[in-house]
């Protein structure tokens, strides 16, 4: 199995929800070396990220990321990815072996330009129905994240450039979904990232 060396450049568009997540519910999903960041008492910041990476990307695939919260370790902070799903075997291998991410295979069904369903076999993980944006604002930002690989803690940067829009959406997460306990259907808002250019940097190992 072959995959590109880091960094990976990923181009397409993405949908992102943001919300508070109960620290007690995410603690079992986060390795003990990490301290959970709570911007609000007993709450951390999490959400759902669904994307499609198209022509011009290091690999072309679809992706669902469950961000369970913000964490800190050895003076660094970043998002903790508790669940991550893609529909490309090379992406699974690269994600696990380069960044220490728990990637799994899943199926993505995009219906027109307003709905996406992610499933594994007959089990639906989540479904997101959304509206198209009516305006956008160019934005660049860097979002750090962690990986965990055979006891090694990895830290890396995600460099985003996109046109940002605020849209309406509805998230459905069946009780059978493994991340149902996080209550990720209680989000504040949904962001649409169009003309997305994401660079996922080579990670470094933290002591």
TrEMBL record:
<dbReference type="GO" id="GO:0016829">
    <property type="term" value="F:lyase activity"/>
</dbReference>
<dbReference type="InterPro" id="IPR010451">
    <property type="entry name" value="Acetoacetate_decarboxylase"/>
</dbReference>
<dbReference type="InterPro" id="IPR023375">
    <property type="entry name" value="ADC_dom_sf"/>
</dbReference>
<dbReference type="InterPro" id="IPR039343">
    <property type="entry name" value="NDX1-like"/>
</dbReference>
<dbReference type="Pfam" id="PF06314">
    <property type="entry name" value="ADC"/>
</dbReference>
<protein>
    <submittedName>
        <fullName>Acetoacetate decarboxylase family protein</fullName>
    </submittedName>
</protein>
């Amino acid at each position: 199995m072959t995959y590109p060396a880091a960094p990976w450049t990923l181009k397409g568009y993405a949908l992102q929800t943001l919300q508070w997540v109960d620290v007690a519910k995410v603690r079992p999903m986060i390795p003990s070396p990490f301290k959970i960041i709570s911007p609000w008492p007993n709450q951390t910041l999490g959400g759902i990220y669904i994307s499609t990476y198209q022509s011009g990307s290091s690999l072309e695939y679809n992706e669902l990321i469950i961000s369970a919260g913000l964490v800190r370790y050895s003076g660094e902070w970043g998002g903790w990815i508790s669940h991550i799903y893609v529909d490309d075997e090379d992406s699974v291998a690269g994600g696990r072996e380069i960044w220490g991410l728990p990637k799994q295979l899943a199926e993505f069904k995009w219906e027109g330009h307003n709905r996406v369903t992610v499933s594994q076999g007959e089990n639906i993980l989540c479904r997101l129905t959304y509206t198209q944006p009516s305006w956008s604002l160019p934005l660049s930002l860097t979002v750090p994240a962690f990986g965990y690989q055979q006891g090694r803690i990895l830290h890396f940067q995600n460099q985003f450039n996109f046109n940002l829009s605020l849209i309406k959406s509805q998230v459905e997460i069946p009780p059978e979904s493994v991340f149902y306990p996080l209550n990720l259907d209680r989000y504040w808002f949904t962001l649409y990232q169009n003309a997305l250019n994401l660079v996922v940097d080579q990670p470094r190992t933290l002591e």
